[in-house]
Design brief:
Helices cover about 45% and strands about 15% of the residues. It is α+β, with helices and mostly antiparallel strands. The chain has a domain of about 150 residues. Strands 1-2-5-4-3-6 form a six-stranded antiparallel sheet, with helices on both faces. Strand 1 and strand 2 form a beta hairpin. The protein is globular.
């Protein structure tokens, strides 16, 4: 299914022609064995009547495992953006955005396609007891699609992804991390969990402590090539090591180590495939002591050797 085309055409009495669409932003990520995504922002046409939607699609073929995937699709309508960067638009730059002539109403469409080789890192329970574990491990036997309610935390994650200011290598690191957050929230929705979360860790009821855990995640992303110990990380965000580890696992559904390793290996894929760096260059950038250690970690995460990704 082409979610983007279906959404835009369903908003009109007549199909939308490509030349009619004014694309304000576009981003694509197509790396084998990774999360592939497309992000498009269109100028909203007067005749478009589009509601905000989210859809989770689980697709499985018993006789063709290569065709299996989990896809998240989101459509956000009615956001208003300045076409120029704030450093260039004088109205926005001097806080007179109400007078800005560059503001346009938009439709944002985001699609994220997760392959089994990527999702298996999140499946620790081999018994596959819950529907979430069955879906992430691709042991659930039937394909399905499910509407996702766009709760507040999901909207914030999407807005953060759409409005970040990172570019090039840092942009890749940031988007990879945000996609995992959207996956986590979407799996919560699939289980029909309430948006209001009752934390097991009582200290997470304190907003200041939750912000410290979120800050720790940001610090990890800023140090993809400079590994931090948990002790150093806890000092940077001013929280007890034990609280940091427990709070991180509860808020983000993974341990600090697993999250950090996942982000490093996804970034390594990007450097090897998109930037066409050598295996030696990548292992040095990620500050591994030995190239064999890097190759082992990469194969554990991706099921292929780093050199195999260079052959394309």
């Amino acid at each position: 299914m082409n979610y983007e085309t279906d959404i835009l055409n369903s908003a009109n009495k007549y199909p939308v022609m490509q030349e009619e669409m004014d694309v304000l932003l576009q981003a694509d990520h197509l790396i084998p064995g990774s999360v592939n995504y497309t992000i498009r922002r269109y100028r909203k046409l007067p005749q478009w009547h589009i509601e905000d939607t989210g859809v989770l699609t689980y697709h499985i073929e018993k006789n063709n495992p290569e065709a299996n995937y989990l896809e998240l699709n989101f459509c956000i309508s009615g956001n208003i953006y300045c076409r120029e960067k704030q450093t260039e638009c004088d109205f926005c730059k001097f806080n007179t955005s109400k007078s800005c002539t560059e503001k346009v109403e938009s439709v944002d469409i985001l699609s994220f396609n997760f392959k089994p080789s990527y999702l298996t890192q999140f499946t620790k329970n081999k018994n596959n007891i819950t529907i979430t574990e069955q879906v992430l491990s691709f042991t659930h036997t039937a394909s399905f699609s499910k509407q996702l309610p766009l709760c507040g935390k999901t909207r914030i994650a999407i807005e953060t992804l759409l409005n970040h200011t990172y570019s090039d290598i840092l942009e890749n690191i940031f988007i990879n991390a945000q996609m995992q957050i959207l996956l986590l929230y979407s799996m919560d929705c699939m289980l029909d969990e309430k948006e209001e979360i009752n934390f097991t860790c009582k200290f997470l009821a304190n907003e200041a402590d939750r912000e410290k855990i979120i800050k720790a995640r940001e610090v990890l992303l800023q140090h993809i090539g400079e590994p931090l110990t948990i002790k150093a990380l806890s000092r940077k965000v001013a929280i007890n090591e034990c609280y940091l580890k427990k709070g991180f696992k509860e808020m983000f559904g993974t341990t600090i180590f697993d999250f950090y390793q996942s982000q490093r290996m996804e970034h390594a894929k990007y450097l090897l495939y998109d930037k066409v760096l050598s295996v030696t260059e990548v292992f040095l950038l990620l500050c591994y002591s030995y190239i064999s250690h890097f190759s082992t970690a990469f194969k554990k995460h991706t099921v292929i050797k780093p050199c195999e990704l260079l052959i394309h």
